[in-house]
Amino acid sequence: MDPQQMAAVRLDRIAFRLNLSEDQKHEVGSILEEAQAERLAQRAATRERIAEVLTPEQREMFEQWSGPRRAGRWGPAQ
Predict the structure, then answer these.
(1) Boundaries of every domain in the chain
(2) Residues 6+ apart with CB under 8 A from 32
(3) What is the pLDDT along the chain (78 residues), one digit of tens a residue?
(4) Which of 23, 24, 26, 59 would bridge with 54, disulfide CB 3.0–4.6 Å?
(5) Which superkingdom, per the lineage (predicted)?
(6) d(Cα 10, Cα 32) in Å, to the nearest integer?
């Protein structure tokens, strides 16, 4: 599931549990989108900071492991 789908599911869940009005759904949706953008920006900044301390070989491996589809999944320890 991509981030937009996850945000939609989260919004649906919140809207259902809290019985949100349409206006509230719109506002909460905007808040969730903003939070998602902030998380993605923070993740990118973190990857950049980590890459700065790695050797070229380590950086190449890191970039393979930390690609957009693998964010947060480092694989088995070696």
Answers:
(1) 3-65
(2) 7, 10, 11
(3) 777 788 899 999 999 999 999 999 999 999 999 998 899 999 999 999 999 999 999 999 998 887 765 544 444 444
(4) 59
(5) Bacteria
(6) 9
